[in-house]
Amino acid sequence: MENVYAYAAVICICSVIACITEMVCSDQRYAKMIRFIAGCFLLCAILQPLRSMGNLFGGIELTEHTYQADNTDMQELQQEFMENKLTELVQDKLRERQVQVENVAVSITVNQKQEMEGLICQVTLSEESAEDAASARQVIRECLGEDTRVILSHDHSVSSLS
């Protein structure tokens, strides 16, 4: 409580000093400058306790906490997004060539360093398009590249081509 009294006393003393200085220097040419300097002096006296506010918290350091997304979560989201987009691309290209499919799934394989190693495309052909396996492989290779591992299946049989 005595800190509050000391603070009030300092403000009163600064106010009195500012008033006396203004009365002593009553020259009109410098009146605005003297008021400005006296106002700055009084403002500094008022804001002085805010400068030492950190001491009021007993040395508790106030820090700003920020959330940082886990890098692996972001990589998994990116990988899932890319797999979905590639699946849509393959489905669209197969539709353009009138190859009817029941299911298309594209998987991206990554190594320990989170670098892409390759693509795997699994396609289940409909019964009507069972003879279009070669055409489907060609479309997939055109879309995803020659290194793509293609797995075709129809009527519960699987045909794999690396």
Written account of the structure:
This protein has 162 residues and is an alpha+beta fold. It has two domains: 55 residues; 91 residues, GMP Synthetase, Chain A, domain 3. 53% of the residues lie in helices and 19% in strands. It has a four-stranded mixed beta sheet with strand order 1-2-3-4, covered by helices on one side. Helix 1 packs antiparallel against helix 2. The longest helix has 26 residues. The N and C termini lie far apart (82 Å). About 3% of the residues have low confidence.
Notable characteristics:
4-stranded mixed β-sheet, alpha+beta, 2 domains, GMP Synthetase, Chain A, domain 3, 162 residues
Topology-level CATH name of the largest domain = GMP Synthetase, Chain A, domain 3
Which segments are poorly predicted (pLDDT under 50) over 5 or more consecutive residues?
A: 64-68
Strand-residue proportion: 15-25%
- How big is the Rg? 38 Å
Outline: rod-shaped
